[in-house]
Write a structure and sequence with these properties.
- The protein has no helices and 16 strands.
- By secondary structure, the chain is mainly beta.
- The radius of gyration is 19 Å and the shape is globular.
- 22% of the residues are buried.
Length: 171
Amino acid sequence: GKTIVSRVLPYHDKLMISTLDNGLFILKNNQIIKHYNRKNGLPNNVVYNVCLTINGDIWVSTNAGIARSSRNEDNFLLISMFNGLPPSYYSFGSMQCFGDSIFVGTDHGLYKGNVGQMKFSSIGFQPYIQQIAVNGKVVSTIKTQIELDAYKKNIEISFGHATIFDNVFFA
């Protein structure tokens, strides 16, 4: 069968490739040098996202939680509610490593963690719709029915947010 790729991330002289059905691959010179899956430590073979921290750790988001592999280890450690994440089975889609922080989008909201401490906390996040465009044209009011152009057939919704983030206001 075919493997569905969810993200490709450069990793020194290698590539990390997360998949939606077959775990995480690390390639060098187009050759698989490591394949991580549920059998060797991933919470699940559905890997939505992968990111690399400043200290070389690999973090993955799956539909059964997130996990971390230290640069000095060859297995993954599950990150759980004991680390501050929501106490249920959840889907993690969005993940981004930034400096010594990691941001994780869950179906319970946005969480920020410190890479060294592996502790997460919820971030207050209030999204709002900035703009709606139908068939490439911005609309100011929404009718009960929207007709889509036969060739374009698209609706674009742009979201923004306002939050306090590290004592800096973003909008």
